[in-house]
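This part of the workshop introduces the protein records we will be handling. An example says more than a description, so a record of this kind follows.
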Amino acid sequence: MRNLYDILGVTIRADQKEIKKAYRTLSKRYHPDSNQGDRRAAEHFHEITEAYGILSDEKKRADYDARLKEADVRPEGKKAAKKPSGNNGYQKNGYQKNEKMKANPLDVSDLFERYMGIRK
Protein backbone atom coordinates (compact mmCIF):
# COMPACT_ATOMS: atom_id res chain seq x y z
CA MET A 1 0.00 0.00 0.00
CA ARG A 2 1.62 3.24 -1.16
CA ASN A 3 1.47 6.02 1.40
CA LEU A 4 -0.38 9.02 -0.04
CA TYR A 5 1.08 11.36 2.56
CA ASP A 6 4.58 10.45 1.36
CA ILE A 7 3.60 11.10 -2.25
CA LEU A 8 2.58 14.67 -1.37
CA GLY A 9 5.44 15.09 1.10
CA VAL A 10 3.23 15.96 4.07
CA THR A 11 2.67 14.39 7.47
CA ILE A 12 -0.44 12.53 8.54
CA ARG A 13 -1.30 15.53 10.74
CA ALA A 14 -1.27 17.99 7.81
CA ASP A 15 -4.32 20.19 7.47
CA GLN A 16 -6.14 20.92 4.21
CA LYS A 17 -4.06 24.06 3.60
CA GLU A 18 -0.79 22.16 3.76
CA ILE A 19 -2.11 19.38 1.54
CA LYS A 20 -3.34 21.86 -1.07
CA LYS A 21 -0.03 23.78 -1.03
CA ALA A 22 1.98 20.57 -1.44
CA TYR A 23 -0.27 19.42 -4.28
CA ARG A 24 0.05 22.73 -6.15
CA THR A 25 3.82 22.79 -5.78
CA LEU A 26 4.27 19.20 -6.95
CA SER A 27 1.70 19.40 -9.73
CA LYS A 28 3.52 22.41 -11.22
CA ARG A 29 6.84 20.58 -11.04
CA TYR A 30 5.61 17.30 -12.57
CA HIS A 31 2.87 18.50 -14.93
CA PRO A 32 3.10 16.72 -18.32
CA ASP A 33 3.06 20.07 -20.18
CA SER A 34 6.15 21.18 -18.27
CA ASN A 35 7.90 17.83 -18.80
CA GLN A 36 7.03 16.84 -22.34
CA GLY A 37 8.30 13.40 -23.25
CA ASP A 38 9.13 12.48 -19.64
CA ARG A 39 6.97 9.45 -18.92
CA ARG A 40 8.12 9.20 -15.30
CA ALA A 41 7.07 12.78 -14.59
CA ALA A 42 3.65 12.07 -16.09
CA GLU A 43 3.28 8.95 -13.93
CA HIS A 44 4.33 10.90 -10.84
CA PHE A 45 1.85 13.66 -11.73
CA HIS A 46 -0.89 11.04 -11.93
CA GLU A 47 0.07 9.70 -8.46
CA ILE A 48 0.09 13.23 -7.02
CA THR A 49 -3.35 13.98 -8.46
CA GLU A 50 -4.75 10.69 -7.16
CA ALA A 51 -3.29 11.29 -3.69
CA TYR A 52 -4.70 14.81 -3.58
CA GLY A 53 -8.12 13.55 -4.71
CA ILE A 54 -8.28 11.27 -1.69
CA LEU A 55 -6.61 13.46 0.94
CA SER A 56 -8.54 16.61 0.02
CA ASP A 57 -11.93 14.94 0.59
CA GLU A 58 -12.61 14.57 4.34
CA LYS A 59 -14.65 11.35 4.01
CA LYS A 60 -12.18 9.67 1.63
CA ARG A 61 -9.30 10.76 3.85
CA ALA A 62 -10.95 9.29 6.96
CA ASP A 63 -11.50 5.99 5.11
CA TYR A 64 -7.90 6.01 3.87
CA ASP A 65 -6.53 6.76 7.35
CA ALA A 66 -8.52 3.82 8.74
CA ARG A 67 -7.10 1.49 6.06
CA LEU A 68 -3.63 2.87 6.69
CA LYS A 69 -3.97 2.13 10.38
CA GLU A 70 -5.26 -1.39 9.62
CA ALA A 71 -2.30 -2.06 7.35
CA ASP A 72 -0.05 -0.77 10.14
CA VAL A 73 1.92 1.44 7.76
CA ARG A 74 3.82 4.34 9.25
CA PRO A 75 3.60 7.79 7.64
CA GLU A 76 7.12 7.32 6.30
CA GLY A 77 5.84 4.39 4.26
CA LYS A 78 7.49 1.73 6.39
CA LYS A 79 5.63 -1.10 8.01
CA ALA A 80 5.84 -1.39 11.76
CA ALA A 81 8.67 -3.59 12.91
CA LYS A 82 7.52 -6.89 14.27
CA LYS A 83 9.27 -8.36 17.24
CA PRO A 84 11.32 -11.42 16.32
CA SER A 85 10.20 -14.70 17.77
CA GLY A 86 12.84 -17.15 18.87
CA ASN A 87 16.24 -16.97 17.25
CA ASN A 88 14.96 -16.72 13.64
CA GLY A 89 17.40 -19.38 12.48
CA TYR A 90 20.48 -17.65 13.83
CA GLN A 91 22.89 -19.09 16.34
CA LYS A 92 24.19 -17.09 19.26
CA ASN A 93 27.36 -16.18 17.35
CA GLY A 94 25.28 -14.47 14.64
CA TYR A 95 25.86 -17.01 11.87
CA GLN A 96 22.85 -18.58 10.27
CA LYS A 97 22.31 -22.27 10.92
CA ASN A 98 23.35 -24.33 7.96
CA GLU A 99 23.98 -28.06 7.80
CA LYS A 100 26.88 -27.55 5.38
CA MET A 101 28.52 -24.88 7.54
CA LYS A 102 31.96 -25.89 8.68
CA ALA A 103 33.31 -25.29 12.15
CA ASN A 104 35.41 -22.39 10.83
CA PRO A 105 33.26 -19.88 8.93
CA LEU A 106 36.40 -18.34 7.41
CA ASP A 107 37.44 -21.61 5.73
CA VAL A 108 37.32 -20.86 2.00
CA SER A 109 38.35 -24.27 0.73
CA ASP A 110 34.76 -25.04 -0.28
CA LEU A 111 34.87 -22.00 -2.58
CA PHE A 112 37.88 -23.46 -4.40
CA GLU A 113 36.07 -26.77 -4.70
CA ARG A 114 32.87 -25.22 -5.99
CA TYR A 115 34.19 -22.65 -8.44
CA MET A 116 37.62 -23.87 -9.50
CA GLY A 117 37.22 -27.62 -9.26
CA ILE A 118 40.21 -27.88 -6.92
CA ARG A 119 39.81 -30.53 -4.25
CA LYS A 120 41.76 -30.94 -1.03
